[in-house]
Amino acid sequence: MVFNSLAFAIFLPIVLIGYYLLPFKGQNRFLLLASLVFYAWWDWRFLGLLGLTVVIDYYASHAIARARGEGAAVGAHHATPRMKLWLRLSIGSNLLVLGVFKYANFGITSFEAMLHGIGFHVNPITIQLALPIGISFYTFMSMAYVIDVYWGKFKPVDDFFDFALFVSYFPHLVAGPILRAHQLLPQLTHKRRVSKEQIRDGLALMLVGYLRKVLIADTLASIVDRAFLNPAGMSSTDLVVRLWLCAIQIYGDFAGYSDIARGVSKLFGIELHLNFATPLLSQNITEFWRRWHISLSSWLRDYVYIPLGGNRKGHARAYLNLLITMFVSGLWHGANWTFVAFGAVHGISLSVHKAWASWRGETIPKHYGTNPWTFWTPFKVFLTFNLFAFSLVLFRSASFGAAANYIGNILAFRPGMRFGETLFVVPFVLLTLGMDSLQYTNFGVQLLGRMNVVTRAVALGVLLALVLIAGSDNSLPFVYFQF
Which of 15, 109, 406, 480 could pair with 34 as two cysteines, CB 3.0-4.6 Å apart? Predict the structure, then answer.
């Protein structure tokens, strides 16, 4: 089941009514059941895979806690051999699941290509396995939970069903955000009260999310797709403009999903953390990755970059750690060498930016949005936006040949411009900034709060209509469902 479907428009009110009528423990059990139905709507057979992850990591976390010692306080960090054994079991099982279902064919075809490259010819081998929806998101969540228990940052949750809900909670299940134990579990294990403000804010967020998806992402998708299907049929200017539109489309699609997920969760009295913070206004690539897909960026920082040594072992090692981290990011996005190259481009860009800042004696702010705005800010924003947009050639292309073909057609410098479609940049940039303004300045929330009951009901009706429109045959799936 997906958010932009008629099924979800029916599912959500039923779940909300049942949730509001039940006591606290009943609410958690009911939410778990609803989450399993939500996931099974796509393919019930993969419930077993989700359940396997939950069972292994639940028992691994408790085994780690017992091996440390029942009396050890949270924060104590002394790893025993038994703790390491259970940690390896958890990480190994999660990576094995990802490896088999997401990367098996990629590994096989890459190995075959290598053999062909050195003169050996083998018959093609393929494994016909469907990619379980959301597998990259929930495995990273569950794995991080066990690592946090191992590091002594978090005590394992006692109730198995609460942990199962933590992993499978349907608003974040199939496309994130990738939540941490300290962000979500305390909200699940303590009694909740849904406030009027949460309902108001949740509906406003959902409205913004659907507007991003329906008005921005789905409208631009066909324009962008035509460019990647036939770059030779367009001028160089048109191809560049469509890369800009591609960046806006992907942002609208993924940020729209995150907004809807956060909004839906608020209706249950559960807060999900911000996943996007106006990334297209970033002044440099480091700031961009602190604003874009924040839950993944912070996950990679905490569980890949810092354990590798971060920036504690000198500049050269820090740059290498960045490259490795972004290599993992690229591979996380998809089982294709183009995604790996996409990650490598950003790893190199991050390293170059850090080296440039170090050479100039500048300190890179640790938090996004703290760079001061100056005369040069528009130029910096434009440069950063183009770096991201051009890297999307690798993100969107099925092969290096297709990516090279797209770039080659840009560099052919063919004159001309399709003014009708090209002018879409201006209104969609303004629309994107408008959606950001509605969300990040709380203008939309304040506007909804000033509405009377009748007006608010009309707004809710418009929201439902958007859901129904999005659920029509012309609806497009969310881009990040493939990851």
Answer: 15
